Amino acid sequence: MTYSPEVRVRLETDAKEIIGRYPKARSALLPLLHLVQSEDGYVSDDGQEFCAELLGLSKAEVVGVSTFYTMYKRKPAGEYHVGVCINTLCAVMGGDQIWEELSEHTGIGHEEATSDGKVSLERIECNAACDFAPVMMVNWEFFDNQTPDSAKQLVDDLRAGKPVVPTRGPSRLCSFKETSRVLSGLPDELAGEGPSAVGPSLEGLRVAKANGWEAPK
Amino acid sequence: MTTLTPVLTKNWDLPNSFTLEGYGDYAAARTALGMDPDAIIQSVKDSGLRGRGGAGFPTGMKWGFIPQGDGKPHYLVVNADESEPGTCKDIPLMMANPHSLIEGVIITAFAIRANYAFIYIRGEVVHVIRRVQAAVREAYEKGYIGRGIFGSGYDLEIVVHSGAGAYICGEETALLDSLEGFRGQPRLKPPFPAVAGLYAAPTVVNNVESIASVPSIVANGADWFAGMGTEKSKGFGIFSLSGHVTRPGQYEAPLGITLRELLDMAGGIREGHRLKFWTPGGSSTPIFTDEHLDVPLDFESVGAKGSMLGTRALQIFDETTCVVRSVLRWTEFYAHESCGKCTPCREGTFWLKQVLKRLEKGQGSEDDLTTITDIADNILGRSFCALGDGATSPIYSSVQHFRDEYLKHFEIGGCPFDPALATVWGTK
Asked: What is the ipTM of this complex?
């Protein structure tokens, strides 16, 4: 175990808060693995041992779980983890072309990171934003209606440290580690930022209003 | 003509729709907590609400299966693991209107006598998770959840739980295993979750949209809800149009509306093109073609035509799209997401993928079409859960409707389509 005493104390405080929410401690395993990623950028050996220790599990039990879920990374993700949806609808609408051009542009493939550690890429499955196809995600924030050019620009900006804003999300993009902390159940203060809904999400409501259609009273 | 009926989507254009100020003061939950819990269950039964997560099981009946007076804790688990390809309704709903879900959770938990509720949200949507976390926090601060809600003696804790990337966790028993801190693999049923669910206690697992619809039923009455929709598929639902349509998006309408009506509202198929095939309710529902434009989109009518209403995820593809490529990609998805627990699904999806890859490259033969339907025969009804069954839907339906297109691939030794033409920018 190589966490420094300060890190260890901080992680333990967070972990105990999370564990305390559940009627049974083991339910906190997925959140704790997100917490480990918020510290290390992946599910490190130390982190998995930490989870095992806090939950009274064997390390094998923890690894058995962490290897099942695609969001837990076996090696460090980039500071910005970039997903391109290549499920059928997004692929057809242009996701395949985006992936090919982006992968060539960055010189990295699926679940690989650039040498500066800034960006990693993933071919992601349907992210429930099909009406905004082709869709990309950066650190699990929406980047809707992408093109090959916008995708390459996005990644160039991320690597250059330029500000990048999700299409439906907060006004600043969190790092992979910051995002992982929210996923562990420890909220940041960004929920109020960004729109309620945009574009396609409002299309039906717009048509209804234009025609004076309402649900029965 | 069917018209749209915004209920859950009604406040989405307010800039603060995701706050209590933009939502309301939980009047329906206040009403519900003054009612007999059994009367709430009866009202939801009378409304005819059926599960909005795909299977369409009557919601009130599911609640009624929870044994009462059994001395065990009861749990409510909201399935917010929206991952079925094409399905994109719960995510914008929780982003724009999380309080409808929280209010529904309060009413449902009270009705089934649960003091603990979990909202299991797929992990890949962090801003949605923030919005639900914030809505729960706001409700706690107002005393709408927590101890002695609205001055009643009723206590309720709500925990927002993030998944970690696994389509299978949308299957309710896999979700429960995942929520207990295990690999998300489905459980044998029976026992059903109503008897032995989370921590082996009686548990209701409901989809986001089902739960979010409950406050409107309490507020307006079961008859109001049942007055919309068709005889057996009552009420409204969010229809998600995506793909080659002029204005894709979320259209909230009574069940029984047709694709033709929805396409009229959405500006039709993108200019200069025509409808080729579509899914009525996600990739696990057999594909339809332009022959099915007038099928009422309700559970019975879609079923009678050989598909399923599913999640009302209408993925629309025009004539530039290769069916074989589409089916291959869906099949790769199922193979990737198969949890590995049962052999028919684990091996079957793996082999389907291999054969379809060959077919798509034009290196197959007509015998391969028999092979893939044979493999599908060995998955459908033989796999442990519905993931395997779902994987067979694109196979059977594509061979049924587009056999010639498969044949064309090996006649010319490749794919007859130019994928560039199908892209958003391809025909500009």
From this structure: 0.98
Provide the whole-model pTM. 0.98
In this complex, do B321 and A196 lie within 8 Å of one another by their Cβ atoms? no
Give backbone dihedrals phi and psi of B315, rounded to 5 degrees, phi first.
-90, 120
CA atoms within 13 A on the CB side of B340: 7
Q: Is A55 within the bounds of a domain?
A: yes
Please name the member of B96, B166, B181 whose beta carbon is closest to the beta carbon of A29: B181
Give me B421's structure tokens. Answer: 């033409």
With pLDDT > 90 as the criterion, what percentage of chain A qualifies? 99
Residue B95 confidence (pLDDT) above 70: yes
Q: Which helix (H) or strand (E) holds A181?
A: helix A176-183
Q: What is the mean pLDDT of residues B169-178?
A: 98
Is the Cβ pair B125, A127 closer than 8 Å?
Answer: yes
- Note whether A85 and A155 are same-domain residues: yes
The number of distinct structural domains making up chain A is 2
User: How many Cβ atoms from other residues are within 10 Å of residue B150's Cβ?
Assistant: 16
Residue-wise pLDDT for A3-50, tens only, equals 999 999 999 999 999 999 999 999 999 999 999 999 999 999 999 999
pLDDT of residue B68: 93
**pLDDT above 80: residue A1:** no
Residue A87 and residue A132 share a domain:
yes
Q: Are strands B236-243 and B313-318 parallel, antiparallel or unpaired?
A: parallel
Query: Peptide bond preceding B191: is omega within 30 degrees of 0, i.e. cis?
Result: yes
Residues A86 and A171 occupy one common structural domain: yes
- State the nearest Cα–Cα gap between B149 and chain A, in angstroms: 19
Q: Are residues A155 and A115 in the same domain?
A: yes
| CB B86 within 8 Å of CB B283 | yes
Strand-pairing partners, residue A81, are A120
Express as a percent the part of chain A with pLDDT over 70.
100
Distance (Å, whole) CA B17 – CA B9? 10
Shortest distance between the Cα of A96 and any Cα of chain B, in A, equals 9
Q: How far is A29 from chain B, CA to nearest CA, in Å? A: 5
Structural domain containing residue A37? 5-66
Q: What is the pLDDT of residues B337-355, one digit of tens each?
A: 999 999 999 999 999 999 9
* CA–centroid distance for A23 within its chain: 27
Domain with A43 in it: what CATH number?
Answer: 1.10.10
Q: What is the pLDDT of residues B39-81, one digit of tens each?
A: 999 999 999 999 999 999 999 999 999 999 999 999 999 999 9
Cα–Cα nearest to A172, from A181, A164, A183: A164
Q: Which of A32, A66, A100 is the last residue of a domain?
A: A66
Q: Which domains does chain B have, with CATH numbers?
A: 20-221 (3.40.50.11540), 236-318 (3.10.20.600), 323-422 (1.20.1440.230)
Confidence of residue B407 (pLDDT cuts 50, 70, 90): very high
